[in-house]
């Protein structure tokens, strides 16, 4: 038996593909004829590939990944969730990989919002690629009250940034929550307030828990012109995930966008929002300053700490 250090990287990759295909056939109980058709090859070629006599072309494997529902990057990193593949294959479209259900405190509207933005601003194929990367069936987008954890957002944004999206996109995704929430009970509640001050008081005081419960929010100052709010860690979340802080820098950029857009529920232009301190930059707390006296008619950049 060859030692892995004695064979080329190309041979190692081919062996990894063979093992993966065999696992797919086993876990999904797929007939080899269906595997051949999904790959776009003859049955005899599949036999040669599985026996190591012939390599599988990358484009054929990419075609297979689209058919089964996984991303090549997940395969290369050894992170394909076979249970998720099987659940979706059996018709359980609402299944979310276990990696995203532990400590789930975010409503599915977050994923719906990211998907909507990508499909609207970029293209359908990128949005579909995002779902394959997350191993989530598109049907789950019909269930906004399903829950997931903040790792789902982290992985979604990481994937999109690898595809060329930037911080400005992350900000605009946060801003896009207003369109995603349109017509919901949450949006109707937000629209019911008469002033930005009363809206932010209620939004950050209690309504935000309708969206996510990863952090607690504490208003430290509010006037008719500005609001300053701190995002505080929930100890139980830190314990569940064994981390010092919840989320990552991009999540804060997303929150800046969401906070800026909240005034739009009232028919006003977006507010000016600055993250003046951030735990992901070494500060003790994430703190946001919201200025709704001088709204943003157009923003040219993302102002985060």
Strand content: 5-15%
Tally the beta strands: 6
User: What coarse outline follows from CA principal-axis ratios?
Assistant: elongated
What's the total helix number? 15
Strand order in space, largest sheet:
3-4-6-5
> Considering DSSP H and I runs of 4 or more, what fraction of the residues is helical?
40-55%
- What's the CATH first level of the largest domain? Alpha Beta
Q: What class would the helix/strand composition place it in?
A: alpha+beta
Amino-to-carboxy terminus distance: 54 Å
> Unreliable runs, pLDDT <50, ≥5 residues?
298-305
- The tally of domains stands at 3
Give me the CATH fold name of the largest domain.
H-NOX domain
What is the averaged pLDDT score?
A: 92
Annotated CATH architecture of the largest domain: Alpha-Beta Complex
What would you report as the Rg, rounded to the nearest angstrom?
23 Å
CATH homologous superfamily assignment of the largest domain:
H-NOX domain
Order of helices and strands: HHHHHHEHHEHHHHHEEHHEE
For the sheet with most strands, the description reads: 4 strands, antiparallel
Topology at a glance:
Elements: H1 9-27, H2 32-39, H3 43-50, H4 58-68, H5 72-76, H6 82-89, E1 106-107, H7 109-121, H8 124-134, E2 147-148, H9 150-162, H10 167-175, H11 177-180, H12 185-191, H13 196-205, E3 215-222, E4 226-233, H14 235-241, H15 249-261, E5 270-277, E6 286-296
Antiparallel strand pairs: 1-2, 3-4, 4-6, 5-6
Helix pairs in contact: 7-8, 8-9, 10-15
Could you characterize the architecture of this molecule?
The protein has 305 residues and is an alpha+beta fold. The chain has three domains: 4-68, Orthogonal Bundle (434 Repressor (Amino-terminal Domain)), CATH 1.10.260; 98-165, no CATH class; 177-296, H-NOX domain (Alpha-Beta Complex). It is built from 15 helices and six strands. It has helices at residues 9-27, 32-39, 43-50, 58-68, 72-76, 82-89, 109-121, 124-134, 150-162, 167-175, 177-180, 185-191, 196-205, 235-241, 249-261; strands at 106-107, 147-148, 215-222, 226-233, 270-277, 286-296. The protein has a four-stranded antiparallel sheet. A hairpin with a 3-residue loop joins strand 3 and strand 4 (226-233). It is elongated and about 75 Å long. Residues 298-305 have low confidence and may be disordered.
């Amino acid at each position: 038996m060859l030692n892995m250090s004695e064979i080329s990287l190309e041979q190692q990759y081919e062996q990894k593909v063979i093992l993966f295909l065999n696992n797919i056939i086993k876990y999904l109980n797929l007939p080899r004829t269906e595997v051949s058709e999904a790959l776009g090859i003859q049955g005899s070629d599949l036999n040669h590939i599985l026996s190591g006599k012939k390599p599988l072309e990358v484009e054929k494997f990419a075609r297979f990944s689209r058919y089964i529902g996984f991303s090549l990057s997940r395969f290369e990193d050894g992170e394909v969730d076979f249970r998720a593949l099987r659940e979706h294959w059996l018709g359980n479209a609402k299944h979310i990989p276990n990696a995203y259900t532990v400590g789930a405190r975010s409503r599915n509207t977050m994923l719906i919002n990211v998907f909507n933005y990508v499909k609207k601003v970029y293209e359908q194929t990128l949005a579909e690629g995002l779902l394959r990367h997350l191993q989530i069936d598109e049907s789950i987008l019909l269930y906004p009250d399903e829950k997931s954890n903040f790792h789902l957002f982290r992985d979604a944004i990481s994937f999109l940034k690898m595809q060329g999206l930037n911080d400005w996109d992350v900000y605009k995704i946060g801003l896009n929550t207003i369109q995603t929430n349109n017509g919901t009970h949450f949006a109707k509640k937000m629209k019911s307030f008469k002033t930005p001050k009363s809206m932010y008081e209620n939004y950050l005081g209690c309504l935000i828990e309708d969206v996510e419960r990863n952090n607690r929010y504490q208003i430290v100052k509010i006037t008719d012109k500005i609001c300053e709010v701190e995002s505080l860690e929930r100890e139980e979340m830190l314990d569940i995930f064994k981390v010092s802080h919840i989320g990552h820098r991009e999540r804060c950029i997303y929150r800046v966008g969401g906070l800026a857009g909240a005034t739009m529920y009232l028919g006003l232009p977006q507010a000016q929002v600055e993250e003046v301190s951030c735990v992901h930059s070494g500060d003790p707390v994430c703190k946001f300053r919201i200025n709704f006296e001088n709204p943003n008619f157009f923003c040219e950049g993302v102002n985060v700490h």
